[in-house]
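Aim 2 progress. For GH18 domain-containing protein, the working sequence is reproduced below.
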Amino acid sequence: MKVLLPLVALTAVFLAISQGSPISAENEKVVYCYFESWTVYRPGNGKFDVENIDPSLCTHVAFTFLGINADGTLNILDPWESNPDGLNGFERLVNLKKENSNLKILASLGGWNEGSLKFSTVVADSAKRTNLVNSVISFLNQYGFDGLDFDWEYPSRRDSENPEDKDNFSKMLEELKVAFIPRGFILSAAVNCAKVNVDISYNVTLLNEYLDYVNVMCYDFHGEFDNYTGHHTLLYSSPIDTEFNNSEWNIDDGIKYWLASGMDPAKMNFGIATYARTFTLVDSTKSGLYEKISGAGIPGPYTRIAGVLGYNEICELYPNRTDIFDDVQMVPHVVIGNQWIGYDNEQSIGIKVDYALNKSLGGFMLWSFDTDDFTGLCGDGTYPLTRIIHDKLAQRGFTLKKN
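Predicted structure tokens for this construct:
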């Protein structure tokens, strides 16, 4: 059975939403946190499970990730981690609401490994879209989640260059929203920040209509996929970026373009990264921006991914590091031998929080719990990067959104 409303009813629903109260009170902000479920398998001090989550730090927590089948139904990617006959991760995560009655728990669909092509195929087919809507509602009801985070990050990009992805994605969100409204479910999406990708992937006007929250991924502008060094969370471009035709390849231009394209700032969550992108320099004496690299940086002991280090790994491995702060891009990096490490510290996160508040954005998205120093082993208490968000909010008279 299709979960669709007649046009008149649909119009009435959205009219009611638009005439209702704003998504958050003026002095309330969202802190939307992602839980990477595979971190339960990390070794030693890097192991992160539901019990490591401090539920007072977030207004929303999203479980990552659910997958999608070819027929549009949901695919639980790691049943052992999630289901009652294994580690029972779903139930334990939802139970965090007992510790914070304002907390909302969502399931996130997609992610890097799910790619783009499967989503492109499903959203192009009305029957498969209906399958997805019904499968999502069944899942949310079964496990007690409060909504869905749609993390198809690449409409019309990556392994699908179908230009119809953009419109079909909007149709998919519309059908989910229609089904969610009477059930009180939340609908959010993770979206790309880069200005050049917005028009390719998104109908911003429709996303603004259908989504409760838009989690803007303000990171991964550079990485081991380049053949040179570059910071992945640069707030502004510097003169050297212009030389390499990257003058608009930065967070500020992306955020401003989302706003100019019609996205309600109150729905936008500014993405904060607690991990670094790293490179191996060809010549360690040449360690500025756009210097040649031989490849990704050395994997860390916990994340174990070449080209990536968690903040917790950086502070443990290099406790005496000296940050090099770029006063134009407003981000730090550190050079250790032939390793170039671009990350965010307390100073740069504070600058980003002020930036988002000055733009009247609705809040912040954090990717992710497990690469902050959640153990407090580095001496600045638990979750030092996440707490910068809270400290800044308090200093400026904001509180967390009460759901």
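Confidence is low (pLDDT under 50) at residues 1-24. This observation will guide construct design in the next reporting period.
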